Amino acid sequence: MIPREILKKIRQIELRTNRIVTETLAGQYHSVFKGQGMNFDEVREYQPGDDVRAIDWNVTARMNHPFIKKFVEERELTLMLLVDVSGSGLFGSLEQSKRELAAEIASVLAFSAIRNNDKVGLILFSDEVEKFIPPRKGRSHVLRVIREVLFYEPKHRGTDLNAALEFLLRVQSHKAIAVVISDFIGSPAIPRREGSRRPKPQMMLLESLAQASFTLLRQANRRHDLVAVQVTDPRELELPALGRLVFQDAETGEIVEVNTGDARNRDAFAVRQARAQEIVAQVFRKAGIDAIQLRTDQPYGGILGRFFETREKRRLRG
To answer: pLDDT, tens digit, for every residue of 92-101?
Structure first.
């Protein structure tokens, strides 16, 4: 029996994301993520303007006037959601945590998929694959996916994108839309103490990406249509001026004290984090992967809409 408060939370996300799908993303999912080929549909009489290359000569010979073969797009696709449930996803400096934002993004994409009669599957990962839900269709299946993203309690707190990609390649033989939703953080990006051997923040931010080799990223993107969605919180990009603060690493438990009252510390942190975001973007560009950055303090509907529009324009040019 699912507790009432969990059902209420899932229902709220369904209502909110369905509105975004209807008002903002209607038709864009279908246009951007195309089927894998064309299937024969029927034979019909030739009409002026039809492509003569589609003439069915066998039927034409039997009927003594031209008929053409009609094909339809092989529309059915599979959407695989790879969602990071490591410890850092629980962070949220405002009303929404990164994991809650990940659940909403997963919901938007999943409801867009089932409106197009596509299947939806789920891989939850930390530093190992925590849970796998095979692709299926239907609203009740999508609601289960949302519930797992929101409330699944992972056994581990670290991050290993490599393990998730390897698992995807193993279980999904046919081409799929594979969306990785993660903060791509191995450890919280916080300033280093004097004399500490702690890695630089941009290296911490790229820890899970570094583990996922370019070879594996490219391999996954060649077999599937791979999209990376990075979820971030504003306090991971800029520190507030609140004096001395104590930070705890959500994945390792390490504790660090930082003087946020010092403007030099805040400025240095912001510069390092901006550079780290640039490096993340470069990683995906070099691997040929489309990426979106979403924040817990900003509406995401318009950003997703612009992403779909950009992909559609590029597809038409190609």
So the answer is: 888 899 999 9
